[in-house]
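RECORD TYPE: inverse folding
INPUT: structure tokens
STRUCTURE:
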């Protein structure tokens, strides 16, 4: 596997995550019509994922994406989404350009409003309240939420920011 094209690389890779452009994602309305993803689940304990499990799952999934030639043409356009449907199970979605053999290929459709935040995983409930307030100003209400982390932990430290995009399905 070529580490230069991985969204989350090993600690020695100095060019790991691309520099995040918040303006591209903040306060945007996005329409996805059958946007392709592969999906896997991870165990959680009261909505807290096990970090080592996240790394293992993403590495395995990304290897399958690369082997299928299904990654986005630009590394900056790679979306890895997390959804937290229950206190004991999380979901990971990696956007793909085409179906990936032997993976759980799914599509996501709908209208989404995105907001960019800078903070840790534990701040997500606060960020959900902020996006809910933002939606309420226009008479909208979220049906579901997905989170994309712009940087792996190493790059968040390197860049001094822990950006995330919160996608609210409306």
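DESIGNED SEQUENCE:
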């Amino acid at each position: 596997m070529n580490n230069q094209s991985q969204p989350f690389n090993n600690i020695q890779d100095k060019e790991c995550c691309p520099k995040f452009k918040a303006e591209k994602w903040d306060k945007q309305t996005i329409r996805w019509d059958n946007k392709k993803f592969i999906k896997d689940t991870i165990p959680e304990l009261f909505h807290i994922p096990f970090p080592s499990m996240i790394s293992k799952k993403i590495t395995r999934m990304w290897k399958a994406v690369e082997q299928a030639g299904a990654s986005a043409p630009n590394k900056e356009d790679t979306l890895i989404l997390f959804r937290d449907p229950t206190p004991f199970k999380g979901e990971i979605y990696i956007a793909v350009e085409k179906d990936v053999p032997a993976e759980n290929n799914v599509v996501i459709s709908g209208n989404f409003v995105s907001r960019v935040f800078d903070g840790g995983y534990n701040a997500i409930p606060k960020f959900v309240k902020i996006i809910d307030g933002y939606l309420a100003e226009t008479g909208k209400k979220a049906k579901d939420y997905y989170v994309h982390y712009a940087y792996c932990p190493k790059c968040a430290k390197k860049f001094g920011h822990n950006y995330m995009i919160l996608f609210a399905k409306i």
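NOTES: The chain has one domain: 27-169.
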